[in-house]
Amino acid sequence: MIKAERLQQIIDHITKEGKVLLGDLSKLLNVSEDTVRRDIKELSDEGLLKAVRGGAVLHSPIPRHYRERENYDVGHKEIIAAKALKFIKDGQVIIFDAGTSALAVAIDLPKEINITVVTNNFPVANILEDHPNAEVIFVGGRLNKSSFSTMGHDAIQAIKNVRADICFLGICSIDLNIGVTGLNYEDSQMKKAMVETSKHIIALSTFEKLDTAENYYICATNELDTIITDIDPKEGKLQRYKDAGIEII
User: Which residues on neighbouring strands pair with residue 118, listed in sequence order?
Assistant: First the structure.
């Protein structure tokens, strides 16, 4: 088998399975693990997958810029937002992160609900300008133009001064073993601070983001209390997350 064919088989396999192990690929392709490791590194350098210890996983499929993400998978985000509303009660302090799934929840907030929203997300703050009962604390800092959010030391320190009842965490990538990861270092640091200061962590994640990974670590998967997704919680792929003690909605 020539190298090009071998690389294509690796891509096909990871696309089907979501992740690959060096040992399994070595047997499948009838080559050494060192050869597979070099192939995975090459594919990882090209951005076609994410190399991890012992194998590789898929990258998150989501677009990088907020404007592109706004119009991406809108229907599935609306399903997630509808499920998220049942967690919101009067008197709560809730962190909304910079994700477009968090924005979908903000858009659907009932007008009668009386809560305090803490956010670094410009679109969330704009949506809630006209909400009659939601107090909004906007976290200042340096503008991240690709995510329409604030970031940096001052923003992180402001988040650390909050003790939120709930954090709605928009997910870029989540893998049971690797954890929750993000595309942008500073955005991931913001999310990490939000997780650390909140009582109940709710991950908002479409199904396609599960079992993917990016470069910047946010938290261990078992730090999540709940994952709200766009599919039936009985879906087989979700069982491993349930077994880890995470509520699946």
Answer: 95, 137
Q: Walk across the sheet containing 216-219 and list its strands.
A: 173-175, 179-182, 216-219
Q: For residue 9, how many other CB atoms are within 10 A of its CB?
A: 15
pLDDT at residue 73 above 70? no
For the entire predicted model, the pTM comes to 0.79
State mean pLDDT over 23-47: 79
CB 95 within 8 A of CB 138: no
Cα torsion through 17, 22, 25, 29, rounded to 10:
160
- Amino acid 144: pLDDT: 87
Q: Are 212 and 61 in contact (CB under 8 A)?
A: yes
For residue 77 the two structure tokens come to: 């985000």
Residues 57, 211 contacting (CB under 8 angstroms): yes
Q: Give 176-234 pLDDT, tens digit per residue.
A: 888 999 988 999 999 999 999 999 999 999 888 888 888 899 999 999 999 999 988 88
DSSP string, 98-148: SSHHHHHHHHH--TT--EEEEE-BHHHHHHGGG-SSEEEEEPPSEEETTTT
pLDDT digits (tens, 9 = 90+) for 110-125: 999 999 999 999 999 9
**Which amino acid appears at position 65 of this protein?**
H
In this prediction, residue 91 carries a pLDDT of 97
Q: Tell me how far apart the alpha carbons of residues 77 and 90 are, in angstroms, rounded to a whole number.
A: 23
Tokens of 76: 């599935």
